[in-house]
């Protein structure tokens, strides 16, 4: 479902599946929680960053719901609710986080990507897509709070959430959804993410301070998730 590898100062979290769609289901959610817990415990001394990647056509392709079953929508609602714990763990992680989107990112997978501090995307293929308006499903409060926190501009949020717009790389940059989209292959977007991660880890920020500043930067989504920020004054390294 996913692997976690430590390469020097970088943790590389890779989504894996036989069909390369990496759908979010109970097993993947459990794997993600376990991986984020490992990063949290091992990054205590600072100087680390997390990069999330995936191989194939999809960065991640929606929730894994058996639509042929009569209780499919009930299953989806339960899964979306359980995914809150992943977002809580990600947003409280005490290290810089980077999502390297090498393919499509739909619904919950776009939510997963936006939970990172930095989002990189391929220019030549792939799109971002919130499918709920097309599926006739409302959004839980924590997802709309994340969208308001991470996507600047009411017009951009309208097009993503109310129009179900499929947004490609360069357009996603213009809309303020992703940071960079100048990469033309899966390998290149990961390489850029690694370079960014290396630059960030050189700063060796205090891990507690980093996590608390992130919480204070996004008070709405963190409040919805129950992540309470606190004041920390750590000894300066300057």
From TrEMBL:
Pfam families named in the record: ECH_1
Protein name from the UniProt record: Delta(3)-Delta(2)-enoyl-CoA isomerase
Top-level taxon in the UniProt lineage: Eukaryota
Catalytic activity: a (3E)-enoyl-CoA = a 4-saturated (2E)-enoyl-CoA; a (3Z)-enoyl-CoA = a 4-saturated (2E)-enoyl-CoA
Cellular component, GO annotation: peroxisome
PANTHER family attached to this UniProt entry: ENOYL-COA HYDRATASE-RELATED, ENOYL-COA HYDRATASE_ISOMERASE FAMILY PROTEIN
GO MF entry, a single one: delta(3)-delta(2)-enoyl-CoA isomerase activity
Pathway: Lipid metabolism; fatty acid beta-oxidation
Biological classification of the source: Eukaryota, Viridiplantae, Streptophyta, Embryophyta, Tracheophyta
């Amino acid at each position: 479902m996913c692997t976690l590898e430590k390469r020097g100062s970088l943790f590389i979290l890779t989504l894996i599946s036989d069909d390369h769609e990496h759908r979010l289901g109970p097993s993947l959610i459990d794997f993600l929680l376990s991986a984020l817990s490992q990063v949290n415990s091992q990054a205590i001394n600072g100087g680390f960053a997390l990069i999330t990647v995936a191989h194939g056509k999809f960065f991640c392709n929606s929730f894994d719901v058996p639509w042929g079953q009569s209780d499919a929508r009930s299953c989806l609602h339960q899964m979306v609710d359980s995914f809150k714990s992943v977002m809580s763990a990600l947003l409280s992680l005490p290290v810089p986080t980077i999502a390297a989107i090498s393919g499509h990112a739909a619904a919950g997978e776009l939510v997963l990507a936006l939970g990172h501090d930095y989002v990189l995307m391929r220019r030549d293929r792939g799109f971002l897509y919130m499918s709920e308006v097309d599926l006739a499903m409302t959004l839980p409060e924590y997802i709309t709070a994340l969208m308001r926190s991470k996507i600047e501009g009411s017009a951009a949020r309208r097009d993503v959430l109310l129009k179900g717009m499929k947004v490609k790389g360069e357009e996603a940059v213009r809309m303020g959804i992703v940071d960079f989209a100048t990469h033309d292959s899966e390998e290149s977007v990961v390489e850029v993410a690694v370079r960014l991660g290396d630059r960030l880890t050189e700063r060796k920020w205090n891990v507690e301070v980093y996590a608390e500043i992130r919480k204070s930067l996004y008070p709405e989504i963190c409040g919805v998730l129950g992540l309470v920020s606190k004041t920390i004054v750590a000894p300066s390294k300057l």
